[in-house]
Amino acid sequence: SVREAVVSTQSTGRELWSSKSHWEADAGQVMCGDKDGSLYHPAPMDLLRRQLLIQWRDELNLTISIRRDGTDIILDTETQLNEADLLNKPFYYSTTTPAITWLCFTTRLVSNFAYYILSTAAVLVMAQIAHKVYHWRRTKERQETGQMYELIDQIIEELQRNYSKYQSDPKNHVPYVPIPHARDRLLLPSERASMKHTWERAVQFIAQHESRVRVEMRRVQNEDFPVWYWVEAMKSPTPMVPPQPDSTSSDFLYPNIEPLKES
Length: 263
What we know:
Shape: rod-shaped
Number of strands: 7
Largest sheet: 4 strands, antiparallel
Number of helices: 8
Mean pLDDT: 78
Oligomer: single chain
Helix content: 40-55%
Order of helices and strands: HEHEEHEHEHHEEHH
Strand order of the largest sheet: 1-4-2-3
Radius of gyration: 48 Å
Distance between the termini: 165 Å
Strand content: 5-15%
């Protein structure tokens, strides 16, 4: 009857209102770690109780969600539900006002502050490390570049010396230098491993940017080696030729012989 329905509704409503403080205390204990569990509780399979939870969710400070097609949907004023959804779908509710003690509130505040400080410190430390690594790599790159140019200067001097020897004594010298032999003369055995990258950069730089040097393959003592040729043009001095008078000039056709007459 209608009277029984009204009485049932009032009884269920009073039960929900009396449970409000229990929900808040239970949620506070879960948030503070004093109790294991979840903040969301499954609603009983009771159509009236579920209807009242939805109708009074703002007064009871509740968040209500329903699982539909594998997705949890937070109910709001625009959510459309039918009776089948209320009875058959998983239905959860959680209070939005957990009762947290001052001790718990202070502990959470300090914990969150410490987490913020530690996170900020970690970010600053990582940024400092990244800056140090970047600075170290730039410094190392500049040092390697300086070593490369110094090595290129030594290679050029070696090629010039070898070419001078070849010009002086072509029978006993050749106009090229095998690249591995140049490396072994310019680098000590203890330096060859650590200077390998710098040497390779110097060889590549000469091949790409040094027009006075030509790279070829040459058989040296029955082995094929890449060699450097010094091909810079050696300009010989131009002999001085005295100027010749123009054959069409008056001085050439009619020379001044007065000095000859006086003599």
